[in-house]
User: Fold GID complex subunit containing RING finger motif from Coemansia erecta.
Amino acid sequence: MDKVNMEHMLAIEEPFLKVPLEQLKRSARQIQKLVEREMAAVSSELSEALKNQYRLAPEELQKTVDGLIERLQVLKRKLEDANQEEAQLIQRSKRRAIELQELKGFETTAHPLFQQWCRRRLDRVLVDYMLRNGNMRTAQMLVEESQLEHFADTSLFSLVMAIEAELKESHSCRGALEWCAENRSALRKIQSSLEFELRLQEFIEMARAHNRAGAIAYAKKHMVSWSDTQLPRIERAMTLLAFPPTTLCPPYRAMFDQARWQTLSDSFRTVIFQLYNLPAQPLLHLLLQTGLSALKTPACVSEEPSEHNRNCPVCQTETLGKLARDLPLSHHVNSNLVCRITGEKMDEDNPPMRLPNGYVYSQSALSDMAAKLDGKIKCQRTGQVFKLSEATKLFIS
Ligand SMILES: [Zn+2]
Assistant:
């Protein structure tokens, strides 16, 4: 029985805990800003009214006070909503911490509750995979079936999908720019140029529409502030105005290229994942790679397809093998003999059989072949044909 290795189990769980905490942090910061802005506006309006209280007609004063009350009521409603959202996020963080805490109670991997825990983890890893790929409805079905409401970051991924669709399909930067404005200080901290790229795209669209005056005004308003780090690109953007959208001149053709929308969408995903501490790859890939790296042998990467074992996932070059491409070869302390024809392990029950030409196959493969070929067997590597009785049994010591 294997012991549960807490350290290994927790190594991949960081994003699971961090996402709701990051959301909480962001929400608290936004609320703080909102309160500061509203209170400053209210107090300045109030002091203005007090200054003029003897000059203003009572009705006018009344109107100002009513306006202030209404403003504060809107603020109150927003705070109540935020309070509710934060309570949900706290609950979510708590449930996730409890889920990981449970691992402590399992002494060995044979514990039935450990198996259940792993099943739940598999489900949440699958939900993460589906959410990343935009399969929102299927993800939601699994969330409901497995009661994973507190473990799925549905709202975050819905936001990612909505903004990506706006960029790729509607060719609009509106949502992405709003998101940048809400997260400006965090973006500055990681020195992200995403907002500049979006501004540049809006500028390019004006150039495409031959709106040169509009583009210049836009650049003055939104791009000049980036001149510390982006000056050469701002200059190139200005030169773009001299070229038609059909230009073949390489740097300007690249700027007019519609493929920039896909690049923007990819950059947005990279940045938002970075801010929420989400790995670029789905957890499912990381877990599969851990398993695949234990199976990868030199034969798996051989250019010769006949070296591949059909029962080995790493040898499936079009599917799981792709995930294993950059993984190192595994270190095997004990060797296993595997039949090249059937992919089965060769042992005392299915011993290796040596043909007169020196090649070795499993007994079961050779007997199956002999049954079909009238007692004959054919070497898969050389094509030579022998009688089954010519094969000799080898002993593994
Ligand atoms: Zn293989």
